[in-house]
Amino acid sequence: DAEITQSPRHKITETGRQVTLACHQTWNHNNMFWYRQDLGHGLRLIHYSYGVQDTNKGEVSDGYSVSRSNTEDLPLTLESAASSQTSVYFCASSERLAGGSTGELFFGEGSRLTVL
Amino acid sequence: KQEVTQIPAALSVPEGENLVLNCSFTDSAIYNLQWFRQDPGKGLTSLLLIQSSQREQTSGRLNASLDKSSGRSTLYIAASQPGDSATYLCAVRPLMDSNYQLIWGAGTKLIIKP
User: Fold this and answer.
1) Considering only alpha carbons, which residue of chain A is nearest residue B52?
2) Whole-angstrom Cα Rg for chain B
3) CB A109 to CB B51 under 8 A?
4) pLDDT per residue of chain B (114 residues) written in tens, 0 to 9
5) Which residues does A98 contact at the CB level (< 8 Å), separation at least 6?
6) I want to staple B61 with a disulfide (CB 3.0 to 4.6 A). Which of A55, A73, B72, B78 is the partner?
């Protein structure tokens, strides 16, 4: 079965360190997304990509970056981790919205990041 | 600007009851609406997706309806079970947003008491 795999599932790091969260999907979807989920804020979009070499900023992109070198992977990098970036991070993917596609969104299991 | 509201924020009912979860949106110009389930410490699982041209979708004991003119969607759960306990989120994909990004509700936390 197709799936989205995130790693690591849990990570503790220190302020100022660089952290990369991996996301790998086997759906062959063009669209990939990174969200963070915090109590009181719900799901907020960080970055998204509509295909290889395409990346776009979401509503809370400051301090984060992504790169898309192939269809399957969209790693999320925190250049210099801050305590405000302690959160649960979700990767998601969907088909491109064309040719009658619904754009149904599928999620990974999440990565819980703690920045001390 | 599209806004999505889910009321109530939490709901507790005895096992076996039929129940309805509500999702309201302010702009009827939508591409589709998707319902998700989230268990504690887990990712979101897609339950049902309704296209703007559809009135309802069914999957097992779940039925989702869409009334664009009134800006409402409901998720009906028949014969509720303790395993249905989770947070249910709805998300709307606006039609006029060029990026077609989902607008999320805050969710309804459902507890089914045995």
Assistant:
1) A102
2) 14
3) no
4) 889 999 999 999 999 999 999 999 999 999 999 999 999 989 999 999 999 999 999 999 999 999 999 999 999 999 999 999 999 999 999 887 645 689 999 999 999 999
5) none
6) B78
Whether residue A99 lies within 8 A of chain B, CB to CB, comes out as no
3-state secondary structure chain A: CCCEEEECCEEEECCCCCEEEEEEECCCCCEEEEEEEECCCEEEEEEEEEECCEEEECCCCCCEEECCCCCCECCEEECCCCHHHCEEEEEEEECCCCCCCCCCCEECCCEEEEEC
Q: Do B49 and A58 touch (CB under 8 A)?
A: no
CA distance to A24, A84, A99, B103, per residue, from B97 (Å)? 27, 29, 18, 10
